[in-house]
Structure of Pyridoxal-dependent decarboxylase:
Amino acid sequence: MSHRIPMDHPKFFGFIPSPVDENSYLGNMVMAMYNVGAGSWILGSGACTVQDALIQWFAEQAGLPSSAGGIFVSGGSIANLTAIVTARDAKLHFEQRHKAVIYVSEQTHSSIAKGLSIVGFHRKQIRRVDHDLSYRIKPTSLLQEIERDKKSGLVPFMVVATCGITNTGGIDDLNALADIAESENLWFHVDGAYGASVLLSKSHRHCADGTGRADSLTWDAHKWLFQTYDCGLLLVRDKRHLIESFATDASYIKDAAEASSDRVNFWNRGIEMTQPARGMKLWFTLQRLGLDKVGEMIDHGIDLAEFAEGVLRGFDNWEIISPAQLGIINFRYVPPISQPSDGNFDPDDYCDKVNTEISRLAVERDIAAPMTTRLGKVLNLRMCIISPQLTRNELFGVMQSLDAIAKEVSASLLHKKMFKM
Ligand SMILES: Cc1ncc(COP(=O)(O)O)c(C=O)c1O
């Protein structure tokens, strides 16, 4: 087990880390011991009842109406896939499917395109709408694309916004996109796999204003709600849409049919029939910690990323590529070079190599794990800093070490280049 990257390590900053609260481990162990089947109420009436109440509570936090419902799933990818199927069935006649168009952005998570492909849509049916300088979908561009498609006889049916863009932590303008979706009668999906958790922070929940206008909302608790794998959630504005797409029928399950509206059979709301009670450890964690504490843990991540940004701004030669947003920051070291006369020298390539090497060495030397990404053409370091265990002091130490590695690496790479080693 030591031969792996522990995604819950406080200094693992790649992808979306998974800092886990000890209550989630405990809740997980208890549920594994009982091995409750949460597909239907008669198999796990306690777990189904608690999960359904929890889903209702999450829907309220998101600002969704009482008609809302949802299902716990394995994670953001399956939540998004479930939303795509639900949207397709709610908005399209079967004969329209080949003409349907979905609007996303360059920063939309790859699981959306994967889900669309699984469902049978072609790449040509996906529009990547222009974004602004903060990588947020431009509402005016969205409207133009929709108009163009309608004129070509195509059928716009779904807009995907992101609350917590994986690369940057940014949030699309949910209200502006919801306005367009509403006026054009499109399904409005918000992928909040990462960022929806900000709704549980009293001081930052306003950042995610507009989630309540979603037709469906993805929200992962194994990202920023301190849960073990797996724990994802899909919320839908009107739960009847889930049932229309996923109702399960077979002669051998008739005895388990939902006897009343409070006896939910989750196999009627999603892809899986057999399923664990994924929401129970989350319920347990929330009961044990209380909402104030969970909110503080989320705020801590937001504060740490802002702190890191401040530290970088105080160092020489570091450039902020995308400022701290929801615990994520993108930056790079730009070595001060007096360009060698060698005509083959490419400063951008050199800069990319320096930053790739900074990340590699930080991991190799057991300092921390910032990883690289690309925003536009620029390769940069990206840190998602959400561990409640990490202190500002420890983070300051990490940033100092990165600065020292940056100086060392840029000198050694430049030397190699100049002397063609
Ligand atoms: C915005 C977003 N959506 C979806 C996903 C996929 O989630 P999962 O890995 O749980 O399937 C991720 C993963 O990082 C994400 O950041």
User: Anything to note?
Assistant: The chain has a mean pLDDT of 95.
